[in-house]
Fold:
Amino acid sequence: MLQEFYDRINLENDLSQLAKIICQKYNLGKFLSEDIILVGYEDFNFILTTNKGKYCVKIFNKERTYKDVKSYIDRIKLANTLEINTPKIYESNNNVLCEIKLDDVKFILCVFEYIEGKSFYDLNEIPNEKEIKNIILQMAQIHNSKLDSDFIYDKWTITNFIKEYKEKRKYLDRKYIKTFESLLKRLNNVKLDNLPTSFVHGDIISSNVMKDLNGKLWIIDFAVSNYLPRIVDLAVTSCNLCLNPDDKAKTIKSTKMILDEYQKYNKLTNYELECFPLFYDLANAMGILQISYLISLGETSDENTFWLTESERGLNFSTPDFWEKIIY
Structure:
């Protein structure tokens, strides 16, 4: 499994060699240890421990272009200007990006503040009512920010379902096809221009919400933030952080709470509420689609299994009686 992560950045040597150079570049102190973060897609992340403390290092995937990396950094800088809890990014020689060449391999990376705690994914917990309200408060603050950023294409984003489905439907189990074809027709009838847009995080899920040792919640990873319909965030967050796979009634209660809580800060339009069940279904469908594709490539990690199971259960929960208790 570790080889999959090493392959993302063409790492062939001991990670500690690279970590020691990072310590020097960012003046982080004397190197003590490194621990790879075995959760997440695309990039290579690890915890760097020095005599000064701990830091989170992100080494960008070898497939990322300079434009991709710059776009990511721009989003992180924007996130650091918001009045929300998100890790700060460090500088090396007045630049947050650092390039290191080691044994003819170039590594492009950045370093973040380390949050002493765990994500809800790692905790295997569903946020309680107070925590959900805090997450939605931070989401609303993101949506109400006046930030400017270039558009970035993300294959997991709900609004890209039509393109992604056409390209990857061949990797789906046949049992999904009827449901996915129905979602395709429904999305084709949506007037996306009628949905209010804002700067959205795009991926506020259990692996991107950290809970520190004091119970404070942190929103991390703005890699796919964009100007999109704001219900994208609500749908993605609802279908994961509100899902109690063993209790449909609790899932209904939490999902309704998210919408009600959000409307304390931003009133949802009738059309947003009308489209929300579809976006919820699409968020789950995207999970099934993209994980099915990864599995076809031989990637059978515990994380893939988790997201596939979550997405299937969420889609199964989504019935007329489910939504009449939430919206209608």
